[in-house]
Amino acid sequence: MAGKLCVSLTFAKNDADKATVAFVVANAAAASEKESLVFLSTEGVRLAVKGYAEDVHEEGFAPLRDLMGNFVKAGGKIYVCSPCFKKRRLDEGNLVEGATIVGGAKLVEFLGDGAPCISF
Predict the structure, then answer these.
(1) Sign of the CA dihedral running 57, 44, 23, 50
(2) DSSP state of 92
(3) For burial by CB atoms within 10 Å, which of 44, 58, 93, 100 has the most?
(4) Phi/psi at 104 (nearest 5 deg)?
């Protein structure tokens, strides 16, 4: 299966269920050989900081840290909204593997050919 899929995630520990399900969907896309991207914005950017997701584990799902790691191992990319990250004064030198801080233009570039985007 070719193609792309973007998962836009605006939540972190403030809604661990949505954060978890977003990465479940992203992993499904990566497993389907789609070029897969998770775009973290607003509170979701906190997930890009090493150690933040360590204690997030929704019942019935794998721990969020495992879902995130598996997504990256499968070739998925994590884009982190630069203004959102800076607003929260987070440490750019302490990002999880696979995370890249980007401006909105990078997201638009990924979506430019009509790639679908699911929002959580």
Answers:
(1) negative
(2) T
(3) 44
(4) -60, -30
Ordered by start, the domain boundaries in the chain are 4-119
Beta 77-81 vs 99-102: how paired, if at all? parallel
60 in Cβ contact with 76 (< 8 Å): no
Taking only the tens place, the pLDDT of each residue in 26-37 is: 999 999 989 999
b/e sequence 95-107, b meaning 16+ C-beta within 10 Å: bbebbebbeeebb
Q: The pTM is what? A: 0.95
* CB neighbour list of residue 105: distance below 8 Å, 6 or more residues apart: none
**Contact criterion met (CB below 8 Å) for 27 and 75:** no
The answer to whether residues 77 and 37 touch, using CB atoms and an 8 Å cutoff, is yes
